[in-house]
Amino acid sequence: MNHAELLKSSFKEAVRFEESGREFFIKAANSSKNPMAKEIFLNLANEELKHIKRIKEVFDQLVSNGRFPEVLPTSENLPWKNIFRDALNKFKDIVNPQMLELDSIKLGLDFESKGYKMYDELAKKAANPLEKSFFETLRDEEEGHYLAIENLKKFIENPVDWYGELEHHIFEG
């Protein structure tokens, strides 16, 4: 298999992966009893949709030109801290951590970890700096999603410590 065929195969797998992630986060949002978790899961589902769009844009150019594009689509993904902060600000008065389902959170962590590993491997196999940069950006965004979910998990497991840690960061500047 030549490199162009490997890329095409990798892109198809990446789209399938992101689509299944989007489906998972939509189901997690729909089954969540906590409005903050629901908001975070819906934001993550939308982030996966942005990944799908960018992957398809690059894939379409690869297929039509037979090579990796010289200009990559710009990332529109939210910084992971914004995903959690925005949801917390929106629902801080009605959040009850016990209402959240830890199983969905653990599955989300596992999913994002797999995405990180997949894009990291693709970056290592890249034939040029643009390919590498594209896959590293996706990898880093998966890491951001993981951190957003990890932050949610910490909040659920021990909200008092979570708020204490937040205040500690504020006082330190």
Structural class: mainly alpha
Domains (count) = 1
Percent of sequence in beta strands: under 5%
CATH superfamily grouping: Ferritin, core subunit, four-helix bundle
Tell me, what is the CATH class?
Mainly Alpha
Roughly what percent helix?
over 70%
Number of helices: 6
Q: Termini separation (Å)?
A: 53 Å
**Broad shape:** elongated
Low-confidence stretches: none
Level-2 CATH architecture: Up-down Bundle
For the secondary structure, the number of strands is 0
Question: Element order, helices and strands?
Answer: HHHHHH
Major beta-sheet overview? none
Radius of gyration: 18 Å
Write the layout of secondary structure elements.
Elements: H1 3-31, H2 35-65, H3 80-91, H4 102-124, H5 129-157, H6 159-172
Helix pairs in contact: 1-2, 1-4, 2-3, 2-5, 3-5, 4-5, 5-6
Structure, described:
It is a single chain. The chain is an all-alpha fold and 173 residues long. It has a single domain, classed as Ferritin, core subunit, four-helix bundle (Ferritin, Up-down Bundle). Helix 3 packs parallel to helix 5 and helix 5 packs across helix 6. The relative contact order is 0.15.
List keywords for this structure.
single chain, 173 residues, mainly alpha, Ferritin, 80% helix, elongated
Short recap of the structure:
With 173 residues, the protein is mostly helical. The chain has six helices and no strands.
